[in-house]
Amino acid sequence: MFENDTDYTIPYCKVVGETLPEAWEKALVACLSNHGRYRTQYDLEDEEFSKDISLMMVVKKPFSEPRIHKAIPCGIDDLEIYRQEVVDGIKDSWIDPGSGKWQYTYHQRIHNYTVPQRGAHRNGIEFDADLVIDQMAYVIETLAKTPHSRRAQINIWKVWEDIEEEYPACLQNLWFRINTNDELVLHAFMRSNDAFKACFMNMYAFTSLQEKVAKKLSERLDKVIKVGYYCHIVNSFHVYGKDLTAAYGLWEKIKSEPIEKRIFNTSSVADIIREAHDKAREIIRRS
């Protein structure tokens, strides 16, 4: 059995960065340097405990370049495919828990959040079908009618399903609001987030949702609604024990070399992103 220390406190850290790559690096360093030590449900018996903090990360300009970090755990094409999975729902057809396939996608819960209603009564009416809610449409309609509203939020967690799931949703809530500068801000709340292998991909996709809503609101309000800051709030922001060597390797690079060596401008990988759109069409065709 691997010997772990017994520091079971959970530090709470706040980091602020101008761009996605800068903020992510600061958050990763905060986790590695201010951590508590925790066992997780996914550790093997001989693996080191994870390093864990609670985190509030603010990205001031989520669409400023550079926007892509070279240390993502996948290719640029996979990053773009994931973005389309969340924003456009290209893998919603993979949902089929009865056949042992996916239980959900974030896109499905954002656009087709289904609440069991069979046999329920309301105002003397008995429902014979589930209630399906397009939460994205609700957010856009709410902010189009009342731009300063504090009610424009999307919920992901389904208590009647997720408490029984082996891999329940990490994202819990997306909260949108237009500030006094006509900027759309987004707060994403996560119960759990893999700091090294998932966080950057999540932020990349969620800020794309933020951009999509800003564009829709610009059309509805007949004025430019810009993308404002992005806030990523996580209860358990962690690096798994199996990934610590690689994570510390990245930390050494952060300390010893300029960030310009670790990033991509979107324009420099535009061809790969276009190829990923072709892959996405093939995913949809095969589904």
Could you explain the architecture of this structure?
By secondary structure, this protein is an alpha+beta fold. The protein contains 8 helices and 13 strands. The strands form 4 sheets. Strands 1, 2, 3, 9, 10, 11 and 12 form a 7-stranded mixed sheet that branches. A two-stranded antiparallel ribbon has the order 4-13. A two-stranded antiparallel ribbon has the order 5-8. Strand 11, helix 6 and strand 12 (226-239) form a beta-alpha-beta unit. Helix 1 packs across helix 7 (244-256), helix 2 (76-87) crosses helix 6 (199-221) and helix 2 (76-87) packs across helix 8 (270-286). The radius of gyration is 20 Å and the shape is globular. Mean pLDDT is 90; it is low at 1-6.
Task: From the structure above, extract its key features.
287 residues, alpha+beta
Task: Please describe the topology of this protein.
Blueprint: E1 12-17, H1 20-34, E2 36-38, E3 50-59, E4 68-69, H2 76-87, H3 106-111, E5 113-115, E6 121-122, E7 125-126, E8 131-133, H4 135-145, E9 153-155, H5 159-162, E10 171-178, E11 183-194, H6 199-221, E12 226-239, H7 244-256, E13 263-264, H8 270-286
Parallel strand pairs: 1-3, 11-12
Antiparallel strand pairs: 2-3, 3-12, 4-13, 5-8, 6-7, 9-10, 10-11
Helix pairs in contact: 1-7, 2-6, 2-8, 4-6
What is the gist of this entry?
This protein is α+β, with helices and mostly antiparallel strands. It has helices spanning 20-34, 76-87, 106-111, 135-145, 159-162, 199-221, 244-256, 270-286; strands spanning 12-17, 36-38, 50-59, 68-69, 113-115, 121-122, 125-126, 131-133, 153-155, 171-178, 183-194, 226-239, 263-264.
